[in-house]
Amino acid sequence: MNNINNKNNKNIIIHISGASGVGKTTMGTQLKKKFGKNIVVKDTDDLMSEFISSIGGKFINFDSIKYQNYIDNFINKQTKPIIFVGLYNVDVTKEPYNMRSTYNFYITLDKNIIFIQRCNRLFKKYLLNKDSNNFKSKLKNACDYDLIMKQINEWDNYYKKYNFLFLSKEKIITKVSQLIIKYKNKTKTKTKTKIKIKTKTKIKTKTKTKIKTNIKTK
């Protein structure tokens, strides 16, 4: 989705998506470690949770137009490159929210590995929380092989429809890193140009002042 109508359209916005369990959050963490304060990494799940909290914490109060405005407000507050990681948080039968992203990537990985990673994630949460009731209720969905394969295929088709570039984790990290570095270099060049212009203007002003002073003295 292009960053049309984005007030902060000089900024670079990247959206990294992929099937649940493919490693989107992990990739966001890796990029944050690599570029630190030079980028903003935002998980779409966190963005949705923050919006729900802002409207009273109840999903029943959800309004898709207000949520789109919430996304836009978040984007317009940022001054650094933004990397969204996560799914659109919308049913695959509906239009996605506009993340105003200029570059869109979708992580590809063997579907069986995605299945294993999703199950492992659930088991890790259980070991941390020891919530047996919650574990049992989630086990069927999280580790149902046929259901997960169906979901992965639906997500794949949905994001192809919206022209996401399907690549491996390694290739996405490489491409995103190149984009961030290119953006940083452009910003540095613009800053240097502005400084040079300001310096030249100051010199010209000083020269004119000296000439005027000399004329008055004569």
What does this 3D model show about the protein?
The chain is of the alpha/beta class. It has a domain at 13-109 and 152-205: 3-Layer(aba) Sandwich (Rossmann fold). It has helices at 24-35, 44-54, 64-77, 111-129, 132-142, 145-161, 169-217, and strands spanning 13-17, 40-43, 82-85, 103-107, 165-167. The model is unreliable at 2-8 (pLDDT under 50).
Q: What descriptors fit this protein?
A:
218 residues, disordered N terminus, 10% strand, single chain, alpha/beta, Rossmann fold
Distance between the termini: 67 Å
Instruction: Please name the CATH architecture of the domain at 13-109 and 152-205.
Output: 3-Layer(aba) Sandwich
What ranges have pLDDT less than 50 throughout 5 or more consecutive residues? 2-8
- As a percent range, the share of helical residues equals 55-70%
Tell me about the largest β-sheet. 5 strands, parallel
- What sequence of helices (H) and strands (E) makes up the elements? EHEHHEEHHHEH
What is the average per-residue confidence, as pLDDT, rounded to a whole number?
A: 85
Which radius of gyration do the C-alpha atoms yield? 24 Å
Tally of extended strands?
5
Number of helices: 7
- What is the CATH domain class of the domain at 13-109 and 152-205? Alpha Beta
Class computed from helices, strands and strand pairing: alpha/beta
Going across the biggest sheet, name each strand in turn: 2-3-1-4-5
Shape assignment: elongated
Estimate what percentage of residues fall within beta strands. Answer: 5-15%
Q: What is CATH's topology name of the domain at 13-109 and 152-205?
A: Rossmann fold
